[in-house]
Amino acid sequence: MNEFPAVDERRHADSPAEEWTFSFWNPALAGHVLVTRRADGLFDYGWGLWRRDRGLLHVAETGIRSRGDGLLLKSPGLWAELVCDDPFGQWTVGNETHAVELDDVDEALGRAYGIAVPIASDLEWYAVSGPESITDGYRQNGVVHGVIETEEGELTLSEVSASRSHRWGDGGWCGTDSDEIAVAHLGARLAFRLSGERSVDVVLTPAGWRRRE
Predict the structure, then answer these.
(1) What are the residue ranges spanned by the domains of the chain?
(2) Is the confidence at residue 5, as pLDDT, over 90?
(3) pLDDT at 86
(4) Residue 115 has pLDDT above 70, yes or no
(5) CATH for 6-211, among 3.40.50.920, 2.40.370.10, 3.30.300.350, 3.40.50.300?
(6) In a 3-state reduction of DSSP, which class is residue 9?
(7) pTM of the model
(8) Exposed/middle/buried for 174, CB within 10 Å: 0-12, 13-18, 19+?
């Protein structure tokens, strides 16, 4: 039985902070999307794509204003949106921007200098199970279908393992759908430097992205 009402899929305006994550992974590529609403009402956004034997594609932008009461984020050079199509059943996750291609993931925690490349993604997330309680919210397993457009062509995702999370409260979360720290991982890593002193550094495990040890 789902203990969370459909209204919990919406923004919680009365909470000091709020966070949404979407992840997907297979042996060839893995991605992570992070949206955080800060106490000042502005948003931080992170999007990363790991590709085996290729450079990391990285987007991190802070202090973004949302349009309306949904999750449409726009700033110079960035359009990103999360849309709940069916509570606990389906989400659309899209963006259009320039990513930075990085050879070393540690650069993402610094100035993130690299080659700017245009990217666009249009992904559909579908649930395969109900939501589970985590600290200050819930996580949910699913699959992702869709397309990521890069300079080198389209990457098509079909029935790719995925998960997501939604938390609200005082903040300070780890930027993934689990509070666990990875013990063993599959070699993929993503990192984001967000506003203030906050950063997210995660590695891929068979269960999804987890905090780096």
Answers:
(1) 6-211
(2) yes
(3) 98
(4) yes
(5) 2.40.370.10
(6) helix
(7) 0.95
(8) buried
Q: How far apart are CA 56 and CA 117, in angstroms?
A: 11
User: Strand runs (DSSP E) across the chain, as ranges?
Assistant: 17-25, 29-37, 43-51, 56-67, 71-75, 78-86, 90-102, 115-127, 132-134, 137-150, 153-169, 189-193, 199-205, 208-211
Average pLDDT in the chain: 94
Rounded CA separation 129/139 (Å): 10
Residue for token digits 């540690």?
Answer: 106
User: What would you report as the CA-atom Rg of the chain, rounded to the nearest whole angstrom?
Assistant: 16
pLDDT above 70 for 1: no
Cβ(46)–Cβ(59) below 8 Å? yes
What is the average per-residue pLDDT within 119-142? 97
Alpha carbons 165 and 151: distance in angstroms, whole number: 30
Starting from the edge strand earliest in sequence, which strands make up the sheet with 189-193, in order?
Answer: 189-193, 199-205, 208-211
